[in-house]
Design a protein that fits this description.
Layout lengths: L4 H13 L21 E3 L2 E3 L8 H4 L4 H10 L12 H13 L3 H14 L4 H13 L3 H14 L3 H17 L3 H18 L4 H16 L21
Helix pairs in contact: 4-5, 4-6, 5-6, 6-7, 6-8, 7-8, 8-9, 9-10
């Protein structure tokens, strides 16, 4: 039996040479005629599949998207870039500024998981915990910040924080030692933060008389501890 393929090729060639539009299935185009298996619509026809859509529709689709779909068979979902240490530290201080102390603590906790020896992250964690009146945990955070600090420029603020929480825990002798150390480190660093220094002296004055605690002051979260250095 003679194959029908050459005949079909001949027909298509003649139709193409005559300028006649041809369906992807091989049928010649005619107004009002929709070949079997296709779906007619008010704006054209298709097989109901993206890959069988007419050229005028394909021309309106993003070629990058088409390339991805044709190559892989699916539309990729954008991959979220994981946050790094600096991202979490910045997020933590931003949350402190906004008064969202729990979110700040969670951000600093993630930063510490990435860099356990970061004095900045521990100091920020101390601020967040102190602001939530979690004084024992804040004391531990400030102590860690001091142990990992690289000099007076960063650890004076951590000593000040340690002094504040010890004062809040009524451990006045230990608080006095921490606050006096904070002043010594402050002077050694050669920095200038008069408001913070005034608060340290105010607490020392309160401790010297063992008077009742003064109204609580929210610790400053404007900048990380290391930023206090010259």
């Amino acid at each position: 039996m003679r194959s029908a393929v050459p005949i079909m090729v001949l027909v298509l060639s003649v139709l193409a040479l005559s300028g006649c539009m041809v369906f992807s299935s091989g049928y010649p185009y005619a107004d009002g005629v929709v070949p079997s298996g296709m779906i007619a619509g008010t704006d054209g026809w298709s097989h109901g599949s993206l890959f069988s859509a007419p050229n005028w529709l394909l021309a309106q689709i993003d070629p990058n998207l088409m390339s991805t779909v044709l190559d892989y068979g699916y539309t990729p979902v954008p991959t979220e870039v994981p946050k790094g240490f600096e991202d979490y530290v910045a997020e933590g201080y931003a949350a402190l500024e906004g008064g969202n102390y729990r979110a700040a603590y969670n951000a600093f906790k993630k930063a510490i998981e990435l860099q356990p020896s970061s004095s900045d992250a521990w100091y920020g964690s101390g601020l967040a915990l102190e602001s939530q009146k979690r004084y024992l945990s804040a004391l531990e955070a400030y102590t860690q910040a001091i142990s990992y600090s690289k000099g007076a420029g960063s650890n004076w603020a951590s000593y000040a924080g340690k002094g504040r929480v010890l004062y809040s825990l009524n451990r006045f002798s230990d608080a006095k030692t921490a606050l006096e150390t904070a002043i010594a480190q402050y002077e050694k660093a050669g920095v200038s933060h008069p408001d913070e220094l005034e608060e340290i002296y105010r607490l020392l004055e309160e401790i010297s008389g063992y008077t009742s605690p003064v109204p609580e002051a929210i610790p400053s979260a404007d900048i990380p501890a290391t930023a206090y250095s010259v």
